[in-house]
């Protein structure tokens, strides 16, 4: 890169600037705790100490998130807030630039909650605990930095950093095929990152001055063939993490081999990074290209929904079936983003929050009965409802939330996406009808494969070896309730979540509508 290129010195809005670097504290607190992990007594001396340090640190970090967003974040504003911008490596334009808005704030809180509960769910990890909990702390910092970064290079560094802990957590503490699953995960995600880097640098170099600031890149609104190429690069790069068919095959393997807490992070947070990045980069930075390719996103979303649901039927491993279910449910995020109106984008945001809670709950409960039964094979389980009644109740509740039972967050998010598609008059009536019908097929298939899973695991023929396993303990019940209660609350009062991001999604939809009007105005001239 040519260091002589002029760097933009444009400042972010003064009214959004933070008087204290709260976001930096949120990001760096877990990383600071991870640095002291090697200084703690060895695993053989006290394996509980690293767990306690990680739990207390993430509890403090989550409490800080709630306090900062309750006290300093205004959900009625679509502008960047709590802005922190400091020159880091000026020669390459890298800044420590953090800020939040409605697109990032709900996902930061979600990541803080799920990571905290993942540590609490790791209570029985006794091998290499300093490394294990140190990696979870590092992952917490990297996740928050992905959602809060306002500098492309800083975002990319955080995006790459969060791959390392997940790879090691799967490769060291995973199942019998953990090396294969971890290697497949890192190959898919690291290769896709090259497209993200190329597309981002192309945008940074495209204007009259070099900049890595995301707000300034969005102001350029690159169009034409160049914009389409950058859009496709981002789509593939972020689509691996979402995941989009056919870039999804790493996910069932990763979930199948990872332990339950790591699966909670994969489903609850990592997949949401892909959806967030599509909104932040593809939609916000490249509106012209997004309007052109929005129907393609809807088609990909339909494929995700139906393929993921059909693939779930073929899985005899509980976690792999839930992983395929995640592929299906993330298809609704693509539908909402492709709808290009305020209602659809709002549904996509709500679906990410809802699915993060529900999927984390399902993988957690799966980990609970795996610790008792030592198997995830559906044919090798049966009759567990009698010996694990509390566990069954939690798994059934999370399954009902996943299949969009009215009164739970999954229903609100998916119906909002449907309404976003049907209310968009820019699509033809035929396209909207076909989209709704095909997506509805996925909704019909979801209860079939989830309820059949419940029937076979909890009401199938009783396995004598599983007749005396113990049920959930109070700690596990608290973790399950911490995920299911927000699911119910959002289901009955969705405004609690919608108020956080509605101003941002409305502004994004308004920007897309303006871009569409500009494109229509150009058509006669082109003719």
What's a concise summary of this model?
The chain is mainly α and 527 residues long.
Task: Describe this structure as you would to a colleague.
With 527 residues, the chain is mainly α. It contains 20 helices and two strands. It has a two-stranded antiparallel sheet with strand order 1-2. The longest helix is centred in the C-terminal third of the chain and has 32 residues, at 342-373. The relative contact order is 0.10.
Separate helix tally: 20
For the CA atoms, what is the radius of gyration?
23 Å
Oligomeric state:
single chain
Largest sheet: 2 strands, antiparallel
> N- to C-terminal separation?
40 Å
Helicity level, as a percent range?
Answer: over 70%
Which structural class should the secondary elements be placed in? mainly alpha
SS strand fraction: under 5%
What is the general shape?
A: globular
Low-confidence stretches: 1-15, 523-527
Number of strands: 2
Q: In order across it, which strands form the biggest sheet?
A: 1-2
Mean pLDDT: 89
Order of helices and strands: HHEEHHHHHHHHHHHHHHHHHH
Topology overview:
Elements: H1 22-36, H2 48-72, E1 81-89, E2 94-100, H3 105-121, H4 129-148, H5 152-161, H6 163-173, H7 178-206, H8 214-220, H9 224-241, H10 250-257, H11 260-285, H12 287-313, H13 318-338, H14 342-373, H15 384-387, H16 389-402, H17 409-422, H18 429-458, H19 474-492, H20 495-526
Antiparallel strand pairs: 1-2
């Amino acid at each position: 890169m040519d260091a002589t290129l002029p760097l933009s010195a444009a400042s972010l809005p003064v009214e959004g600037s933070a008087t204290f670097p709260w976001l930096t504290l949120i990001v760096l607190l877990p990383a600071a705790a991870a640095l002291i992990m090697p200084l703690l007594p060895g695993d053989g001396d006290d394996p509980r100490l690293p767990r306690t340090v990680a739990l207390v640190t993430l509890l403090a970090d989550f409490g800080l998130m709630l306090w900062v967003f309750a006290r300093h974040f205004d959900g009625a504003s679509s502008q960047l807030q709590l802005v922190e911008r400091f020159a880091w490596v000026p020669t390459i334009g890298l800044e420590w630039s953090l800020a939040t808005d409605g697109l990032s704030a709900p996902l930061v809180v979600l990541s803080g909650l799920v990571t905290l509960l993942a540590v609490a769910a790791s209570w029985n990890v006794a091998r290499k605990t300093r490394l294990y909990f140190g990696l979870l702390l590092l992952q917490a910092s990297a996740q928050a930095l992905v959602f809060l970064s306002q500098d492309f290079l800083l975002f990319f560094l955080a995006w790459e950093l969060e791959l390392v802990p997940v790879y090691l957590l799967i490769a060291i503490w995973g199942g019998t095929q953990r090396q294969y699953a971890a290697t497949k995960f890192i190959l898919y995600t690291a290769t896709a990152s090259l497209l993200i880097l190329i597309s981002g640098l192309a945008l940074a170099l495209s204007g009259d001055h070099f900049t890595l600031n995301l707000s300034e890149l969005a102001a350029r609104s690159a169009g034409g063939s160049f914009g389409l190429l950058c859009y496709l690069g981002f789509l593939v790069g972020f689509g691996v993490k979402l995941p989009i068919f056919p870039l999804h095959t790493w996910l069932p393997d990763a979930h199948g081999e990872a332990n339950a807490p790591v699966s909670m992070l994969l489903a609850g947070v990592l997949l949401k990074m892909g959806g967030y990045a599509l909104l932040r980069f593809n939609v916000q930075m490249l509106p012209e290209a997004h309007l052109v390719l929005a129907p393609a996103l809807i088609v990909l979303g339909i494929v995700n929904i139906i393929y993921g649901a059909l693939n779930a039927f073929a899985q005899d491993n509980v976690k792999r079936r839930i992983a395929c279910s995640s592929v299906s449910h993330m298809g609704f995020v693509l539908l909402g983003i492709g709808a290009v109106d305020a209602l659809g984008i709002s549904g996509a945001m709500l679906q990410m929050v809802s699915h993060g809670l529900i999927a984390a709950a399902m993988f957690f409960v799966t980990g609970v009965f795996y610790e008792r039964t030592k198997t995830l094979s559906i044919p090798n389980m049966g009759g567990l409802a009698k010996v694990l009644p509390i566990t069954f109740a939690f798994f059934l509740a999370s399954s009902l939330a996943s299949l969009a039972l009215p009164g739970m967050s999954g229903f609100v998010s998916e119906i909002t996406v449907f309404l976003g598609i049907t209310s968009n008059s820019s699509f033809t009536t035929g396209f909207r009808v076909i989209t709704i019908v095909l997506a509805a097929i996925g909704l019909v298939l979801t209860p079939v494969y989830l309820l059949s899973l419940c029937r076979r695991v909890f009401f199938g023929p009783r396995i004598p070896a599983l007749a005396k396993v113990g049920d959930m303990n109070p700690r596990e019940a608290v973790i399950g309730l911490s995920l299911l209660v927000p699911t119910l609350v959002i289901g009955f009062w969705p405004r609690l979540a919608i108020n956080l991001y509605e101003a941002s999604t409305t502004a994004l939809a308004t920007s897309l509508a303006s871009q569409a009007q500009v494109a229509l105005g150009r058509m006669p001239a082109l003719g």
